[in-house]
Records
---
Amino acid sequence: MTGAMLLSTGQYLARGAVVTVGLSLGMITVATCFGLMLAVLRLYGVGPLRLAAAVYGLIARGVPLLVLLIGSYFSLPYLGIDLPLWLVVVLVGGLYFAAYMAEVFRAALAAVPRTQWDAGRALGMRRLQLFTIVILPQASRLSIPPFLNVVLVAVKNTSLVSAIGGWELVAAGREIGERTMEILPAYLAVAAFYFVICFTLSQIARHIEKKMRHV
C-alpha cells in the first residue's frame, strides 16, 4: 500500500472503531443498569421476583448472542416494531450481558460483610439509604475486575453486528480486505484497533480501582 492508501485505510478503520465504541458503551450502560436490578432482585427480592431473575439469567446465558441478534432484528418488524439496527444491537446486547453483570454484582453484594448491614441499622439508617450509601459503594470496589471482564467480552462481541448487516470495525476491515485483496493485513489492523480499545479500557478500570481503594 502507498502512504495515501495507508492513511485512508487507517481513517476508515478508525471510523469503524468509533462505531464499535459507541455500540459498546450503549450495551454496557443497559447491561449495567439492568444487571444491577437483576442482582438486587436475586438477593433481596420476594420469591416470585427472585425466581424470575434467576430464570432470566439462565436463559440469557444459555443462548448465543448471535442467535438473539438475528432473531430479534429480523422478527421485530413482523410484530410491528421497527427499530434501527443500532438500537436493536444496544438493547439486545445490553439485555444479554445484563445476565452476566447480574452475577458480577450479586457476588460483589454478597461479599460485603453482614456486619455492615448491622452497623447501618444500629445508626438508624433506612434499608434503601443503607444500601446506597454503605453497601453499594463497597460492592462497587469488589466488582471492578469481573465487571471489566464482561465489558471486554461485550466490546469484542460487537463484531457480531456485521452478521445482521451492520457496519462497525470488523465490517470496515472486511471491506478494506476485499477492496485491496490484502485480507491478512486488513484483519491484523482490525485486531490492533481492538487491542487498543480493550487495553485502554483495562487501564481506565485499573486507575479507577486504585482510586477507589484509597476512598
---
Amino acid sequence: MEKFFSLFSLLQVFWNTAVVCCLGFVLIISIHNETGVFVLVKTMSGYFSMILEVFIICLAGEYLSSKGKLITTATYEMPWYNMPSNQSKILMFIMMRSQKRLVITAGKMMDMSFESFTTIIKASASYISVLYAIY
C-alpha cells in the first residue's frame, strides 16, 4: 500500500505541477489577448482546483506528521514511571516507535507538507515565467 500511494503521490505532484504551469500560462495569455470573461473564469477555476488538489494532499501529509508528534508528547507526559512494569514497557515501545516521523512521501523523494506545497507552487510559477518569456 505504501509503495502504491508513494508512487501515486509522485505522479500527482508531477502532473499537478505541469497542469498548474500550463493553466497559469493560458491565464496570462488570456488576460494579454483579452479573450473574454468566460475563458478567464474557466481557466481560473481549473487553475484553483488543481492548486486545491495539491494543497489537500500536502495538508494530509502535514496533519499526519503533526499527529505523529503529538503521540510522542502524549505518551511521554503520561505517568509511565508509576505504572506496572508490563504497561510501562508497552508505553516505552510506543514512545520508541513514535519517534520515527510519520509522513506521506511522493516517491520517497519529498515529504508532502506545507513546505512541499510552497515548493510546488514556486516551481510552477517559475515554469510559467519561462513559458511566457518564450512566448
